[in-house]
Structure formats: C-alpha cells, structure tokens
Write a structure and sequence with these properties.
418 residues, alpha/beta, Rossmann fold, 2 domains, seven-stranded mixed β-sheet
Length: 418
C-alpha cells in the first residue's frame, strides 16, 4: 500500500471559508480523492517552520467532509441579489453585500485558529523511504529545508504548480509575493520528482523558468483541473429577467477589474437606465484601493455594479448560469476555474486573450485585456442579442475531477481507480 503524506496546511487554515478560492477547491478535491482510495494510506500532515507535523486522520476527514462550499439554504445576501437582478431597472443604488472581513484583514485570525488546531490535532509519527509527500496548495513550499529534509529520508516529493504569476508579473502581487514564490518554485525544481501542472501553459512557463535559472528540466504531469458536480448541470433556477454580466474571483489588480468599472461608466453614458448590471462575485484582495474608490465614488458604478462575496456553490452556479456572459479580463491566469465553470454551464465567456484562456476556452470570445473599445463592443453585442440566442454548447467541455485524478494516479504509479 502506498503511503501519501498529504499536506493539509491550507485545508486546516482556511476551513471556515464559505467561498473557497480555486486553490482551496483543488486542495479539498484532493482530500476527498485520497480518502476514497482503499489502496492508499493517507497520512495528513501540516508544514510549519520547515518541519512536517502529523495530524489526526479523524480531524482531517472532518475538515474535508465539512467544507462549507454549498450551504443547504440560500443566504439572505443571495436572495437580495437575485431579487434585484429579477426586478425592473430602478434608481436604487447597487448592492454592496460584502459581509465579513477581507482576506487580508482576516489573516491573523486564520493563523491563530490554525495554530490552535495544529496543537490539538498533532500526532507523532515517523515516515520511511518510499512514501510520497503531496502538496497541491503551494503552502509551505517556501519553508527552509522542508523538501530537502523529506528527500533525504527517501520520500518522493510531488507538488502542484498552479502558476508563476508572482515571478513573471510581480506588479500584480504584493511586494513580498515574488520572493516567496521564487523560493517555492526553486525548491520544487530542486527536489520534486514530479510536478503536477494545471495547464500546458503553466507547464511551459515552469520549464522556461527552469532553463533561465539553471535548474534541471522538471518531470511534469499536465492535468487540467476538474469541476465540482454542481457546475456540470445547468441550473433550473436562474436570477434575472433582464441581461446581466458576472465576473467571479478575488478583486485584485491582476483581474483587471478597473477596466470593467471604466467600461460600465461608458455603458451607462450610452444606455442610461437600460445599462445591464455587472455582478462582482468575490472577496476584496490585495491593493484594491483604486477599485474601491471607483465602486464608492463613481455614480454610474454605484448604480449598476453589484458586489457580493461568500456565495455557496449552488448560488454561484445559479448566478453564472443566468448571466448574459461571464467576463474575465485578467492580465494573467494559471488556469481559471470560473471560466471553466461557465463553459460547463453553457454561459458565454468573454475573456482576455492570454495563454491560459486560449488553452482552456479557445472558442470563447477572447480579447486583448488592454483593448477597452473591443471589450465594450463585445459587451454591447451580447446585450443586443435576444435572450438565449448567445447560449451555445462549447466544443471543449472542461473535465470532471475523475478525469483529472485518472491522469494523476497514472503519474503516481497508482491504479486509475482504487
């Protein structure tokens, strides 16, 4: 039986989040997959200070199985947004449904909860040669000597690289992110026996970085991310009797939200009360001051752009499924789960023309992220179409998690189903 030391640091640290990010979803999906395999001994671990700490398997199972990604009952915020999107246009201000703290403000509390949980669930254990250390979250890979110590014990290291954005585009990240991520990637290139990549474009970027920095070419496994089952069935309940657009993801500079807000001001100048609402679904992230100023001080934006966070999967499915189109003008992505989810639900996608989107959604409407007039034209064209006319089945449907894990299992030397 294969022993897999699964790094659950991110799962334990972010277990209380009701609206997980893409990496949160990946980590949770891997936890479920490992627990489902009878041929794998899953040993949950956390990494702290460059040291691996064992965790209680029972606590790990609870965290994996109770992640609150799909509340049974609709939230009050969701009901307010759905009612607003279904109502005739009015002069009422747009909704700002941003309950709770931002991701940056909540970080100290998360670390405190994580530390307390780590102490409560710590279990001593020794690991021998032949085990696999699996990290799919980036968490801990920057810690001094973590992978070096594991490799010295004969543990095979397998890590997923989601993107190299902090290295290739540090201007879109916090000042410290580039240094942290470079340490992660260099540690992976130095010690990992296998790198799982979420896309061909990420793998190509990783290989190019390895060649530039003098590291060996990594052994890569390209496994596009899967979708949760709820995103694979078009919902019956969809808000909005009128056109609206949605942009899903953390509100941060890399997502190019500022351009969308500028476009909505121009739309309001042209269309007046017929301007379609834009829904920003996601938490406020790093350096959002300019975006927040735009949201708070521009009259057209105050009227037509709604903001909400904390949606469960069912609510997010209904929001995306009912939209005229999902907008993703990001400057850079490693994969982009919201785009994949929209494609699966049959919602048209207007996205930036970048490598990840060309690979994931080659038949979407792809536009240079700096070409504001082209974006404005595409949005106006989507509004002019009669309801339902712009819904078409994509020729490339994103994979389910089963397909992802079939690729990963083969790369790890495991049976495809276990």
């Amino acid at each position: 039986m294969t022993t897999i030391l699964f790094d659950a640091t991110r799962l334990f640290m972010r277990a209380s989040r009701t609206s997980p990010t893409g990496i949160d979803r990946v980590t949770q999906a891997y936890g479920r997959w490992l627990l489902s395999r009878s041929d794998v001994e899953t040993a949950p671990v956390c990494s702290l200070g460059g040291v691996i700490t064992s965790l209680s398997p029972a606590a790990f199972r609870r965290v994996v199985e109770t992640q609150p990604t799909a509340p049974e009952r609709a939230s009050d915020d969701w009901r307010r947004l759905a009612a607003t999107l279904s109502a005739p246009p009015s002069d009422a201000p747009a909704l700002r449904l941003t309950a709770g703290k931002t991701s940056q403000e909540a970080r100290p509390a998360r670390y405190l909860r994580f530390g307390l949980g780590l102490a409560a669930n710590w279990r001593p254990r020794r690991y021998g040669a032949g085990a696999i250390y699996l990290n799919v979250s980036h968490f801990g890979l920057e810690q001094p000597r973590l992978l070096e110590r594991l490799a010295a014990r004969g543990v095979r290291i397998v890590a997923m690289v989601h993107d190299l954005i902090p290295i290739a585009h540090p201007e879109y990240c916090s000042p410290s992110a580039a240094g942290w991520h470079r340490r992660r990637i260099e540690a992976v290139l130095e010690h990992a026996g296998l790198v799982i990549s979420n896309s061909r474009s990420t793998a190509d970027e990783l290989i190019a970085f390895a060649e530039r920095s003098g590291h060996r070419r990594p052994s890569t496994c390209i496994a596009p991310l899967g979708l949760e089952p709820v995103f694979c069935v078009r919902p019956e309940n969809r808000p909005g009797a009128h056109p609206y657009f949605v942009c899903v993801g953390t509100i941060e500079p890399r997502k190019n939200i500022g351009m969308l807000l500028t476009l909505w001001r121009r739309l309001a100048e042209r269309m007046g009360m017929a301007t379609p609402p834009l829904v920003l679904a996601g938490q406020r992230g790093w350096e959002t001051e300019a975006i927040v100023d735009h949201l708070d001080r521009s009259p057209p934006v105050q009227r037509f752009v709604h903001e909400i966070n904390g949606l469960g999967d069912t609510e997010l499915t209904e929001l995306i499924g009912g939209a005229t189109a999902l907008l993703s003008p990001s400057f850079m992505e490693g994969f982009n789960l919201p785009v994949a989810e929209a494609l699966s639900l049959g919602t048209p996608v207007i996205a930036s023309d970048i490598p990840a989107h060309r690979e994931l959604a080659p038949n979407a409407h792809l536009i240079d992220p700096l070409d504001g007039p082209a974006w404005l034209e595409a949005i106006e064209a989507a509004v002019r179409r009669r309801p339902g006319a712009n819904i078409r089945s994509p020729t490339q449907v994103p994979p389910a998690w089963a397909e992802h894990f079939a690729i990963v299992a083969a790369a790890l030397g495991l049976p495809v189903s276990g």
